[in-house]
């Protein structure tokens, strides 16, 4: 019943093949029309099958003469309509001059059958690519063009499989699609090695899709992924002290030491992976730290340039990469004024600093009384003594600190600073 309704609907379809060829199709069957200069025809009409009663109609002006051959018999007609025969070239003369050429194809006469997909692994390239052999019987389609030449009609088939793709944050399933236009069987092709366990699917073709014919799908056995890819990342664990300079850098792994970095391998999803991190200072690569976890939290206590190398090994394949890290040289800058008036601006006496290993600060009033002491460079004096606001005026500081870098004598950078600072209210 459904087929009958479809046929009734299609009886009313009349579609011009091209703007230059005033020809329409009358048929109870599904069909598609291929046009383009590559076919060297005014229309290539592909029916899912050609049933009795299918016709081609000339709707233009002038005296028409159809010419076509069916088997060994040649026919001519001066009627506007002629029967549609499978795999036939129609030449249309207008006023005695050949003007149009159309060819009809019965798609049902060119079946495709699928048998299997063989996955071929080359030990030299299996970590990057696979070779596939698609066993199938695809009957080639040929037609006769306007020059009388026997021409191959390419058909596009689809090969697809699921892999993993890195989006900059995480691995996600991604459909890899390849279009194949085979001219012979079996079909051989090379694809990028999947990054997750998957099945390969082969189906088609583009013409059957246009005809609305459900595609047969050939599915391979489950392939167990061997390839491994990584996207290592290093994220600086930021500290809260607002007066610590260069705590993080957006476009690189850098900051004030002790620089705490969370390293993540971000390996493509696979089972039984072995991780190896090697972290070392560029000036002393033989002295390194090794870790065997996918994530490593590491503290760079000394200033300098470092490299973190990561290697991930699977059962068959591996991947490696490296990250550059910089722990900045030490630095101290002391303010000469602060205003503890509660407006949220410069309310505390704080040094600006980076990359300090140790720190001591003493602050005295003008009579030499100690009003503040701290070993935390991130802390600051709020301008109070024993919980009461200190008087406005000049105060004196002494700072003794060591940096995480070294001076020209290869000794830890030592800061001995003293001076005065004004408390304003």
Structure notes:
This protein is mostly beta strands. It has helices at residues 2-10, 206-211; strands at residues 23-26, 31-34, 43-47, 55-58, 64-70, 73-77, 81-83, 88-94, 97-106, 112-120, 129-138, 141-144, 150-153, 157-166, 171-180, 187-192, 201-204, 217-219, 233-236, 253-255, 259-264, 274-281, 284-291, 295-300, 304-313, 318-327, 331-333, 337-338, 352-354, 356-364, 370-374, 384-385, 388-389, 393-406, 412-423. The strands form 10 sheets. A 6-stranded mixed sheet has the order 2-3-9-8-5-6.
Structural class: mainly beta
What is the β-strand count?
Answer: 35
Strand order, biggest sheet? 2-3-9-8-5-6
Taking all Cα atoms into account, the compactness measure Rg is 40 Å
User: In percent, how much strand structure appears in the residues?
Assistant: over 45%
Q: Distance between termini? A: 94 Å
Q: Number of helix segments?
A: 2
Q: How would you sum up the major sheet?
A: 6 strands, mixed
Q: What descriptive keywords fit this protein?
A:
425 residues; mainly beta; five-stranded mixed beta sheet; 35 strands; elongated
In short:
The chain is mainly beta and 425 residues long. The protein has two helices and 35 strands.
Task: Give me the secondary-structure topology.
Elements: H1 2-10, E1 23-26, E2 31-34, E3 43-47, E4 55-58, E5 64-70, E6 73-77, E7 81-83, E8 88-94, E9 97-106, E10 112-120, E11 129-138, E12 141-144, E13 150-153, E14 157-166, E15 171-180, E16 187-192, E17 201-204, H2 206-211, E18 217-219, E19 233-236, E20 253-255, E21 259-264, E22 274-281, E23 284-291, E24 295-300, E25 304-313, E26 318-327, E27 331-333, E28 337-338, E29 352-354, E30 356-364, E31 370-374, E32 384-385, E33 388-389, E34 393-406, E35 412-423
Parallel strand pairs: 3-9, 20-26, 28-35
Antiparallel strand pairs: 1-4, 2-3, 4-7, 5-6, 5-8, 8-9, 10-11, 11-16, 12-13, 14-15, 14-17, 17-18, 19-21, 21-24, 22-23, 22-25, 25-26, 27-29, 30-31, 30-34, 32-33, 34-35
């Amino acid at each position: 019943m459904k087929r009958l309704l479809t046929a009734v609907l299609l009886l009313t379809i009349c579609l011009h093949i091209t703007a230059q060829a005033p020809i329409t199709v009358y048929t109870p069957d599904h069909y598609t029309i291929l046009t383009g200069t590559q076919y060297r025809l005014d229309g290539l009409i592909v029916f899912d099958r050609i049933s009795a009663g299918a016709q081609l109609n000339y709707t233009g002006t002038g005296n028409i003469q159809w010419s076509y051959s069916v088997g060994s018999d040649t026919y001519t007609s001066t009627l506007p309509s002629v029967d549609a025969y499978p795999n036939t070239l129609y030449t249309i003369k207008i006023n005695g001059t050949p003007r149009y050429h159309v060819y009809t194809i019965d798609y049902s006469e060119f079946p495709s059958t699928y048998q299997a997909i063989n996955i071929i692994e080359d030990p030299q390239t299996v970590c990057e690519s696979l070779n596939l052999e698609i066993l199938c019987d695809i009957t080639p389609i040929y037609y006769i063009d306007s020059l009388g030449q026997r021409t191959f009609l390419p058909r596009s088939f689809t090969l697809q499989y699921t892999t993993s793709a890195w989006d900059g944050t995480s691995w996600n399933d991604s459909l890899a699609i390849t279009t194949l236009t085979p001219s012979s069987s079996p079909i051989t092709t090379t694809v990028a090695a999947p990054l997750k366990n998957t099945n390969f699917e082969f189906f088609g073709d583009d013409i059957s899709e246009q005809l609305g014919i459900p595609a047969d799908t050939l599915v391979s056995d489950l392939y167990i992924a061997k390839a491994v890819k990584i996207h290592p990342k290093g994220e600086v664990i930021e500290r809260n002290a607002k007066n610590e300079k260069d705590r993080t850098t957006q476009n690189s792994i850098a900051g004030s030491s002790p620089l705490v970095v969370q390293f993540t391998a971000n390996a493509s999803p696979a089972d039984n992976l072995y991780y190896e991190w090697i972290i070392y200072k560029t000036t002393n690569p033989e002295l390194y730290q090794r870790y065997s976890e996918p994530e490593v939290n590491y503290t760079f206590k000394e200033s300098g340039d470092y490299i973190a190398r990561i290697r991930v090994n699977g059962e068959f394949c591996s991947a490696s990469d490296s990250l550059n890290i910089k722990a900045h040289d030490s630095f101290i800058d002391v303010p000469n004024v602060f205003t503890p008036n509660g407006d949220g601006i410069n309310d505390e006496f704080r040094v600006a600093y980076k990359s300090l290993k140790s720190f001591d600060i003493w602050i005295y009033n003008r009579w030499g009384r100690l009003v503040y002491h701290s070993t935390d460079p991130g802390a600051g004096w709020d301008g109070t003594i024993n919980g009461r606001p200190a008087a406005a005026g000049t105060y004196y500081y002494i700072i003794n600190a060591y940096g995480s870098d070294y001076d020209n004598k290869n000794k830890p950078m030592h800061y001995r600073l003293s001076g005065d600072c004004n408390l304003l209210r």
